[in-house]
Design goal:
- It is a single chain.
- With 247 residues, the protein is an alpha/beta fold.
- The protein has a single domain, classed as 3-Layer(aba) Sandwich (Undecaprenyl pyrophosphate synthetase).
- Helices cover 40% and strands 15% of the residues.
- It has 7 helices and 6 strands.
- A 6-stranded parallel beta sheet has the order 3-4-2-1-5-6, sandwiched between helices.
- α4 links the parallel β3 and β4.
- α3 runs parallel beside α4.
- The two termini are 29 Å apart.
- It binds 3-methylbut-3-enyl trihydrogen diphosphate (IPE) (2 copies) and magnesium ion.
């Protein structure tokens, strides 16, 4: 009898992939260019990855674009990162609409400049009927901040007697997170050879398969995504039990 063939990456692409897109600064430094040059190339890598994820049948792609701690960077770099979000949406929104990509943005939004909040709202509204791939952009996002904001909303509901203390558990709490609507990431990739979460998806990554790659983000492409999926497919997920579980 023939051996079963290894499932193709398309057939076995995880439903939800989250990526910490790291290494733009080092990529630029290697080329003696300013860090912002690396961020610009990082946007190209994002465009390639969104397309590749769609091709591979991924349903949810969450990318870390700007953390609540990235405010510690020089003002010019922070402005450049905000400008790149503006540019990415201006350049790609029509294409995303046509290709069936639904855009959502998670993170703290109240303190963002009003034009950014408007750009985000517009991208979400224009793509709201799409359902091929959900592109979730974590912008001004921090896992601790997200959990604290969720706790605040929950506390307000308890204070107003809309929810009782007895009803609070992990499942009901998760409904207050920015990610309430989506399944947790099956795989979390971090590029650039750093082995930490840097405050990304602290709650949601509880059972994500972690894949760390040395590739610097501006070099990331479809082949790199397929390689990560190949690594994911070798993992056995147990979710605390004794037997493998295919979610
Ligand atoms: C990731 O690249 C992009 C953001 C954090 C916005 P970095 O800018 O962190 O690049 P490195 O880690 O300094 O190389
Ligand atoms: C995480 O990368 C944030 C993003 C990729 C947007 P950082 O480069 O900010 O993380 P640290 O500072 O190295 O932990
Ligand atoms: Mg970094």
């Amino acid at each position: 009898m023939a051996q079963p063939t290894h499932p193709s990456s398309t057939a076995s692409a995880p439903r939800h992939i989250a990526i910490i897109m790291d290494g733009n600064g080092r990529w630029a430094k290697q080329r003696s260019r300013p860090r912002t040059f690396g961020h610009g190339e990082g946007v190209e890598a994002l465009r390639r990855t969104v397309e590749a994820a769609g091709d591979l049948g991924v349903r949810y792609l969450t990318v870390f674009g700007f953390s609540t701690e990235n405010w510690r960077r020089p003002t010019e770099e922070v402005s450049a990162l905000f400008d790149l979000l503006r540019l990415y949406v201006a350049r790609d929104l029509d294409k995303l609409v046509k290709e069936g990509v639904r855009v959502r943005v998670i993170g703290e939004r109240a303190s963002l400049q009003s034009d950014i909040a408007q750009i985000i709202g517009n991208a979400e509204a224009k793509t709201r009927h799409n359902d091929k791939l959900n592109l979730i952009i974590a912008f001004n996002y921090g896992g601790q901040d997200e959990i604290a904001r969720a706790a605040k909303k929950l506390a307000a509901d308890v204070a107003a007697n809309r929810v009782s203390t007895a009803e609070v558990n992990a499942e009901s709490f998760a409904r207050y997170l920015d990610t309430a609507e989506w399944p947790a990431p099956d795989m979390l990739i971090r590029t650039s050879g750093e082995y930490r979460l840097s405050n990304f998806m602290l709650w949601q990554a509880a059972y994500s398969e972690l894949v760390f790659v040395d590739t610097l983000w501006p070099d990331f492409d479809k082949a790199a995504l397929e390689a990560a999926i190949g690594e994911y497919n070798k993992r056995e997920r147990r979710f605390g039990g004794t037997d493998p579980v295919v979610p």
